[in-house]
């Protein structure tokens, strides 16, 4: 990040400066420079189409013809029994399913067709519970397409009953009938479609859409109309249970609509909205539906989902508070699962967006102004770094590599550039107000190191925070301010600077993160642990010796004691070692045998986690109830 640059890099940086001048963080992280089409245009294009697939419900009578074929089939079998009884007997013994073809008894009168009559002079019929039950029976017992057609026409009337421009085919004047209609359509439609036009699920979990047959072509128009009406209802629904049901059941229809790009884009746009802002169980259902989309064998759909999920995350991460952080973390974790379903496809997106972070950092380093620094020192940048750390940690997990016979993930080459970009962002500003931002980025890198076989030298970035709080020249002043939440603040307010409450919070957090780093397999699990920590222990002991406060020194002394115990623990275990350092395979086997939780550092971290969790619960109680009093442990 900070080394010499070739001509190509210089040209790229100059071009970027011109192109991104005046762009907001949203615009930049939105990735508009990656192609000619902006992401907003890509995601909103579906809404500009003038066809919602709702035309022609009255012309879906061709669906009924599919069941009329059943009548003809019965007649043909009857004639066969008369003309060739021996062959008919053979069928009875060897192909009974053909002879047992059940003609659907739809359980409805021809008068039901009145619901399809578009004549303005005919009174619009009222939908009743009895009629719904007859349709349900026909679909359950015979998988009746005629009953399905009528049900979905009634469903469209329900979906657009408040739209003046849509003529209603059915009158629905009862709330319970309305709910029953919506529930029946959502639950029964996937069952009937699966019976008539099944799709194939491949061994790798992906699916192939139904084979193009005359029946499938006839049903596709009906299915698309139903799907568009579900999307319309999802925009109108306010009842939690109905939204959840609609999302869960619509996911079952994905294999039938993936061939229609407009339907996929509209659906994805709706899912992204729910995934980022709805209640928890609806957000989970929306995520599962998005994952179903990525199971399509169409790679372009996977690209749409990856891009949409990332951009939605970026927009949602613009501001972070104690109330929004859990939702943002859910989005990061679930989106990372989407990206790791296909490492090769994810690489293209990860490369482009990590490069955006690098270009953004470079522009800030060149300009060196307050406004330029803000383009990096913001929540969106921090969450983007954390998100890609989670993705790479999940994709390049060392245990997964072992299970794959040592085969590395396609995403592994991105660990180094992401680490370099993150370390460069930490070095951009070094004042004490920026320490919360530094700690946020360091947490991300510790997580990345912990789950991959990558050593990231973080001591030079953690120690300045610790030594600054221990320094006698930084004597903190007393204050009545509340402790600053370092997980929901990336820049300390001015009134916190040089206060004891801020210094103690920084030291405690930095010491804990340092312990987490020390407890990773690349450090505590290394056979060279005693040698690795020599510079660290020297610096910490020096800082403790000149510390300005007893409590601050006590926090660091506790960690120093655990480090010394860790050194002795490793030295004791390697006494019986007979191989040399150059024997990489034997060294690797020794390090894999280390149980990190049983090491002195591992036990220390476990204890600290319990203390931090207890404190977190107290803070939440204090946030919910103003009269709660926080007591020091």
UniProtKB/TrEMBL annotation:
GO CC annotation: Noc1p-Noc2p complex; Noc2p-Noc3p complex; nucleolus; nucleoplasm
Biased composition (Acidic residues): 37-54
Compartments where located: Nucleus
Top-rank lineage group of the source organism: Eukaryota
Coiled-coil region list: none
Pfam families given in the database record: Noc2
Region (Disordered): 30-67
Listed GO biological process terms: ribosomal large subunit biogenesis
Alphabetized UniProt keyword annotations: Nucleus
Main location as per UniProt: nucleus
Family stated for the protein in its record: Belongs to the NOC2 family.
Protein name, entry field: Noc2-domain-containing protein
């Amino acid at each position: 990040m900070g080394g010499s640059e070739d001509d190509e890099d210089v040209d790229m940086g100059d071009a970027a400066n011109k192109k991104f001048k005046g762009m907001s963080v949203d615009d930049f992280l939105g990735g508009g420079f990656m192609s000619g089409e902006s992401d907003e245009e890509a995601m909103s294009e579906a809404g500009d189409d003038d066809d919602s697939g709702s035309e022609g419900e009255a012309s879906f009578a061709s669906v009924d013809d599919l069941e009329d074929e059943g009548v003809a089939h019965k007649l043909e079998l009857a004639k066969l029994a008369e003309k060739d009884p021996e062959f008919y007997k053979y069928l009875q013994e060897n192909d009974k399913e053909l002879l047992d073809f059940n003609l659907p008894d739809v359980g409805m009168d021809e008068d039901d067709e009145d619901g399809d009559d578009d004549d303005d002079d005919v009174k619009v019929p009222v939908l009743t519970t009895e009629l719904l039950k007859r349709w349900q029976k026909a679909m359950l017992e015979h998988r009746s397409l005629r009953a399905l057609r009528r049900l979905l026409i009634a469903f469209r009337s329900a979906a657009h009953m408040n739209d003046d421009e849509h003529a209603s085919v059915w009158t629905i004047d009862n709330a319970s009938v309305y709910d029953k209609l919506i529930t029946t359509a959502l639950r029964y439609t996937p069952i009937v479609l699966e019976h008539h036009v099944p799709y194939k699920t491949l061994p790798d979990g992906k699916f192939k859409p139904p084979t193009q047959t005359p029946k499938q072509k006839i049903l596709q128009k009906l299915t698309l109309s139903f799907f568009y009406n579900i999307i319309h209802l999802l925009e109108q629904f306010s009842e939690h249970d109905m939204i959840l049901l609609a999302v869960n059941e619509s996911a079952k229809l994905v294999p039938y609509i993936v061939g229609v790009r407009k339907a996929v884009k509209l659906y994805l746009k709706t899912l992204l909205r729910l995934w980022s802002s709805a209640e928890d169980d609806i957000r989970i259902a929306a995520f599962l539906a998005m994952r179903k989309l990525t199971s399509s064998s169409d790679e372009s759909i996977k690209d749409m989902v990856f891009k949409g999920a990332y951009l939605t995350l970026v927009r949602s991460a613009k501001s972070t508070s104690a109330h929004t952080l859990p939702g943002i973390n859910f989005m990061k974790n679930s989106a990372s699962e989407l990206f790791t379903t296909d490492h090769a496809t994810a690489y293209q997106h990860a490369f482009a967006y990590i490069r955006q972070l690098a270009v953004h950092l470079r522009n800030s380093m060149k300009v060196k102004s307050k406004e330029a620094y803000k383009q990096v020192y913001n929540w969106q940048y921090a969450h983007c770094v954390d998100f890609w750390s989670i993705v790479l940690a999940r994709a390049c997990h060392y245990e997964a590599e072992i299970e794959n016979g040592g085969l590395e993930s396609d995403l592994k080459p991105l660990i180094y550039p992401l680490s370099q970009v993150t370390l460069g962002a930490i070095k951009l500003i070094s004042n004490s107000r920026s320490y919360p931002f530094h700690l946020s980025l360091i947490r991300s890198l510790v997580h990345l190191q912990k789950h991959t076989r990558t050593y990231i030298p973080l001591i030079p970035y953690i120690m300045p925070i610790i030594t600054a709080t221990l320094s006698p020249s930084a004597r903190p002043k007393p204050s009545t301010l509340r402790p600053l939440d370092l997980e929901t603040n990336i820049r300390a307010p001015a009134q916190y600077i040089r206060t004891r409450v801020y210094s103690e919070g920084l030291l405690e957090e930095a010491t804990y993160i340092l312990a987490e780093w020390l407890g990773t397999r690349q450090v505590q699990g290394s056979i060279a642990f005693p040698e690795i920590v020599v510079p660290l222990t020297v610096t910490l002991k020096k800082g403790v010796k000149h510390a300005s406060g007893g409590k601050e020194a006590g926090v660091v002394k506790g960690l120093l004691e655990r480090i010394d115990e860790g050194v002795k623990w490793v030295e004791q275990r390697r006494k019986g070692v007979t191989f040399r350092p150059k024997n990489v395979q034997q060294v690797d086997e020794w390090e894999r045998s280390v149980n990190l939780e049983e090491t002195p550092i591992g036990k220390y971290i476990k204890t600290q986690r319990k203390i931090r969790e207890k404190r977190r619960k107290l803070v939440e109680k204090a946030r919910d109830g103003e009269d709660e009093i926080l007591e020091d442990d």
